[in-house]
Design goal:
It holds the Pfam family HTH_48. Helix content is 59%, strand content 6%. A two-stranded antiparallel ribbon has the order 1-2.
Amino acid sequence: MDSSRSAQRAVIQFLRAEGEHVSQIYRRMKEVYGEQSLARCTIIRWCQRYEAGRVNFKDLPHPGQAHVVTNSATILAVDELIRQNRRITTRGIAVELSISKGTVHHIIHKKLGYGEACAQWVPKHLSDNPKTTRMGICLTQQFLH
């Protein structure tokens, strides 16, 4: 059984169109969905919305700043700044590109996969050659001690 919010909203819309009372809708939803059921106040709110003429049961876009800054051009610009100066700070990148520090942090860590080591930006995941080199050095050190 699909207990997602949008599926439950569709059920509420259907039952309200049939003329069911809000309390009856809540009881039926609780029987079918159990603990996954929407709260009573949420069901009341959605019933009011449907009575006011709303036909869509999906979420509307929320207000706020859109993530239009995180595009490929910005990601490439951040990567280029890091490659030019591995010791550059997120604040320095933000000032240079006129974007927020949070966006810079998201691009560096999530999009580019960099981590900070010894105050320098380095890739979090090594390729096969550096892994093999490090493994060889570790094994050599282990046999020496």
